[in-house]
Amino acid sequence: QVYNPAYELVQFNVTLDVANTWRERLGMGRSQEYDTIRMNLAEMPLTAMPDVGQLYNGNEACLPNLYTQGAVNCKPLSNHPGVLGALGAMPGDRYNVNISVMNSTLSEIIQHWGWDHCWGWDEPLAALSALRLGRSNDAMDLLLLNATTNTYGPTGINQPGKGGGLISAYFPGNGGTLLVVAAMANLTGRTSTGFPPFWHVQTEGFNVPY
Fold first, then answer.
1. CA 135 to CA 137: how far, in whole Å?
2. Contact assessment for residue 30 and residue 20, using Cβ atoms and an 8 Å cutoff
3. Looking at residue 84, what DSSP letter applies?
4. Is residue 207 predicted with pLDDT exceeding 70?
5. pTM over 0.90
6. How far is the C-alpha of 205 from the C-alpha of 207, rounded, in Å?
7. Which residues pair with 7 in a beta bridge?
8. pLDDT at residue 63 greater than cutoff 90
9. How crowded is residue 193: how many other Cβ atoms within 10 Å of its Cβ?
10. For residue 48, what is the enclosing H or E element?
C-alpha cells in the first residue's frame, strides 16, 4: 500500500506544468484541469526523528517512517532513496520542496542508508540532490562511495553486487554518474557549487539545464 509518495507527487506536479507549457507553445492555452490537479496535490509527506527533526517520508502510508527498520508499506533504509529524487531528479525547489527539510533528509540518508542494498544509480541520485543543496563535497563523496552497488569493472561499466551476485552491466549507474559529472561541470565557475574547489577543475562548453 502506497499513499502520496514523495517523489511522485513532485514528478506529477512538474510533468503537468510542463504539459501546460507545451500547450501554450502550441497555441492551445493552459489546461485549467491540469492546473487544478496540480494545485490540489498533497504536500510531500513529513515525519520526524528524535534529535533530527523533520524529514521527508517515502510515502504517507510508510509507518512509522522510511528511517525505521521494520516499517510497513515501504522498504526502510534500503532500495531506492527515492525521496531524494524530489530535488535531485526534479526541480523540486520550484515546486514546494522545503530546502531545510531536504537538507536534513539527505544527511539522514547519507548516514544510515543501506548502500549495499540499493542500486547503482542511487548514489548518483543522492549526489544530484546534494548538488542542488550546494553540498558539492557530499556529492563527490556519494559518487565515490565504497559500496557493493557502486562497483565499476575494468571496462568502466557499473557492476553492482546484489544478493551475493554481480550484475554484469547496469547502465543506469553509468548514466547517473555521467549526469552528475556533467551537472558539476556545468555549475563549476558559475556558482559556489559544482566540483569541490580542491579538485581544481576547468570546464568549457557545458550547458546542462540543471
1. 6
2. yes
3. G
4. yes
5. yes
6. 6
7. none
8. yes
9. 19
10. strand 46-49
